[in-house]
Structures are given as C-alpha cells and as structure tokens.
C-alpha cells in the first residue's frame, strides 16, 4: 500500500460543557469515506461509549454528534495531517499536530483520553508540552485490535464515566455490557 499525505477534514465535536476529550490519531480511510470519526463498521468506539453512557448506539453522523454533546464528550484527533499508509498508525511520518487550545480554551475538559498507543504517544510528544495535561491511554477500538475482547474494552473505557457527571449529579447507571 502506498503512503499518502492526509489532511484532517473533520471539525472537532465539542461545546462549552464538554468534560472529556477523546483523541484518536487520524481518521482512517474508512472514516474519511464515511465522513466522520470512527467510521469503520467494525470499530467499537461508538458502541463502547454508548454502553458506558447507558444509551443506544448512535448511527448517523448527526446522532453521534448529539450523543457526544449530550454526554459531555469532545471528539477529535491528535493530528491535523501526516503521511500514512492506509490505516497503519505505525507508518505515520511528518505528523502535524492539531492545536488543542481550540477545544481546551472553550470547553470544561476535566480529562483527556487517547484511543490507542500511537495517539497517546503523538499527544505526549506534540501536544502535552503545550497543554500541560496528561492524556490517559485507552486501548484502541479499531478492528485491528482484535486481541482485546469487548468486555475488556468496556472495562477500560468505563473510567470516563466519573468525568461525565453533570455538576455533581450522578450519571444514569451504566448498562450491562452487550455480549
């Protein structure tokens, strides 16, 4: 597969009440084709977040945006551009980071989570020196991370629920993990 220069084309999803920032690396070819974050049909991101938040899985782009905002979740990627081979994060060259101040200056972010080791490493190298906020590395929800069961993903992502509470009110109880 050929290396190509990719420019991030999705707007970040956030508003002033966003409390958690979920950062991927860069939209995959399938996400770019679908026109939104975590767009591969087998990516488990939206499913696991829906379960953590006790809601139905959002399907359409508009539903995903509404879901994220309703649950105080901001969604973006570490990179604004890079050279990459397909969806292979390990092939990333010449990364250009996004300016996290775009969200951090306008949202009530309490914690930053990277959705995979490459996103966490790129954030630490390029964004952390400017933000001073550590990012927690969560396992990738990509279909390429097939060694991790859904139950393990759910358990790892459940950590975000404590940050999503709205002004001290308890969040709706977390649903049972789908099998």
What is the terminal-to-terminal distance? 35 Å
Kindly report the name of the CATH homologous superfamily. Answer: Uracil-DNA glycosylase-like domain
Q: Going across the major beta sheet, what is the strand order? A: 3-2-6-7
Work out the helicity level: 25-40%
Q: How many discrete domains?
A: 1
Cα gyration radius (Å): 15 Å
The assigned structural class equals alpha/beta
Low-confidence stretches: 167-179
- The H/E string reads EEHHHEEEHEHEH
Q: What characteristic shape results from the CA principal axes?
A: globular
Estimate the mean pLDDT confidence.
Answer: 90
CATH architecture: 3-Layer(aba) Sandwich
- Our count of helices gives 6
Strand content: 15-25%
Number of strands: 7
Give the biggest sheet: 4 strands, parallel
CATH topology: Uracil-DNA Glycosylase, subunit E
- CATH class categorisation: Alpha Beta
Overview in brief:
This protein has helices at residues 29-34, 45-53, 61-70, 101-104, 117-131, 150-157, and strands spanning 3-7, 20-24, 73-77, 79-85, 88-97, 111-115, 135-138.
Write the layout of secondary structure elements.
Layout: E1 3-7, E2 20-24, H1 29-34, H2 45-53, H3 61-70, E3 73-77, E4 79-85, E5 88-97, H4 101-104, E6 111-115, H5 117-131, E7 135-138, H6 150-157
Parallel strand pairs: 2-3, 2-6, 6-7
Antiparallel strand pairs: 1-4, 4-5
Helix pairs in contact: 2-6
